[in-house]
Amino acid sequence: MKKLKYAIIALAGLLLFGCQTEKDAMEEQHFSNKLYINIGSAFEEILVKPGAPAIYRTLSMATAKPVDKAISGTFVADISYVKDYKKIYDSPDAQILPQELCAIENPTVTIAPGANVSESVSISFDGLSDLDRRTVYVMPIVLKNITDINVITPKTVVYYVFKGAALINVVCNMTENRAGVQEWATPDKFRRMGKFTCEALVRQNQAGRLISSVMGNEGHFLLRFGDAGVPDNQLQIASSINLTNSNMQVQLGKWTHIACVFDSGYITVYFDGRKVLDRGYCGRTYVTWDAYGTDMGEVEDRYFWLGYSYAGDRYLDGDLSEVRIWDYCLTQDEINAPNHFYTVDPLSEGLIAYWKMDDGGGTTLKDSSPNGNDLTLDMATKWPKVSLPED
Q1: Contact criterion met (CB below 8 Å) for 66 and 115
Q2: Strands 157-164 and 43-48: what pairing?
Q3: Which residues contact 32 (CB under 8 A, 6 or more apart)?
Q4: 328 plus 380 within the same structural domain
Q5: pLDDT 10s digits, 310-331
Q6: What burial class does residue 145 get, using C-beta atoms within 10 Å of its C-beta: 0-12 exposed, 13-18 middle, 19+ buried?
Q7: Residues 6 or more apart in contact with residue 160 via CB below 8 angstroms
Q8: Is 186 a domain residue?
Q9: Helix (H) or strand (E) holding 280
Q10: Does some domain include residue 13?
């Protein structure tokens, strides 16, 4: 019996010794010092819009543990790795980014003794807006000329992938929501406006309710769909005198660019650059889109809103993008200028508010103009991905 007891103890000792030896071996395998590019992912997709400025990235190299002696390496734009990218990411049609569009400043870096991260290199990609937006371009950046240390091979290359972006890639859903401002950053610009233009890209996804609000002040000047006796997909300019006609109907689920021009009380409306209302008189010679509608002493909730008027059930069941207010009357030629429906220069003269509606999260709709007239959503919303203009 004693022999059996000692045999069990001896076997347990051998097993314990064996486990410790395996553990030590695993630690040696996983924690030996190795070099790699200090970045989370070996792939980054960059969407390039027309007129895009230069794009900059930084890279450094790192080790798992501090090094005993200086370690150096060089970052190189190596187009020979494009063939690997095509196989790894199943992208046989990808093309090499022209090398003259990529520059690496001071490409050789060093990890100093006692440290485990090198200084960073700056990589610039310029001239991208001239690329064919229908083609995928790749530029591999590879860590080479490494001195006296093992490397984690898959982490010595980063693939920068460039694709032509649409002018609009994300929009704001307004269903059961609203966005407003209680105090403009530049209130004087919105008072007693005798001439102005307001624009929006609108996609009404569902109708079926009496009124769906787009923008404005209840009881002052408001763009909305529907009303008593008005189809629920038909735009109405609601003011002292309401204006609408059957040409002002939108197709549900389809994007429509709406431009409303106010000229001393006379209203002209364009759908996708086409005139659908010609100088209808709205009964007032100026509009105040002030925070509290002070020109008529309205109640508190009647300040400027997107997607709201009078009551919560008058929201827009749809999406908004490219909402703008100008302090002059845009001409039909200006409205039909190339890509005007989808983007304008935020520094354009006369642009007093510009909500691109592409914030992608949060409850603030940033004013892209220099005026700082941000809007606030009542609650978080959805941000549908789109590709506009549609091919």
Answers
A1: yes
A2: parallel
A3: 64, 150
A4: yes
A5: 888 899 999 999 999 999 999 9
A6: exposed
A7: 44, 46, 57, 97, 123, 125, 138, 139, 140, 141
A8: yes
A9: strand 274-281
A10: no
DSSP structure string for 340-358: TTT---TT-TTEEEEE---
**pLDDT digit string, tens, across residues 82-127:** 999 999 999 999 999 999 999 999 999 999 999 999 999 999 999 9
Confidence (pLDDT) at 259: 98
* Domain CATH code at residue 82: 2.60.40.1740
Pairing of strands 71-77, 137-144: antiparallel
Same-domain pairing of 268 and 300: yes
Domain that holds residue 95: 35-165
Q: Is residue 83 part of a domain?
A: yes
**Integer CA distances (angstroms), 337 to 72, 97, 123, 272, 316, in order:** 53, 31, 35, 11, 28
Beta carbons of 344 and 205 less than 8 angstroms apart: no
Tokens matching residue 34: 């190795």
Residue finishing a domain among 126, 150, 165 = 165
pTM score of the predicted model = 0.68
Q: How far from each other are the two terminal CA atoms of the chain, in whole angstroms? A: 86
d(CA 295, CA 301) in angstroms, rounded, equals 14
* CATH code of residue 360: 2.60.120.200
Domain membership flag for residue 28: no
Distances (CA, A) of 294 to 217, 283, 290, 304, 391: 11, 18, 7, 11, 45
Specify the number of domains making up the chain: 2
Radius of gyration, alpha carbons of the chain: 31
* H or E segment to which residue 23 belongs: helix 2-31
Is-contact 256 262, C-beta < 8 A? no
Q: What DSSP letter does each residue of 287-314 carry, written as one string?
A: B---TT-TTTT--TT-S-EES-BSBGGG
How far, rounded to the nearest angstrom, does the alpha carbon of residue 110 sit from its chain's CA centroid?
Answer: 36
**Whose CA is closest to 141, among 33, 46, 31, 67?**
46
Average pLDDT along the chain: 89
Task: Give the closest residue to 183 by CA, choosing from 19, 373, 377, 6.
Answer: 373
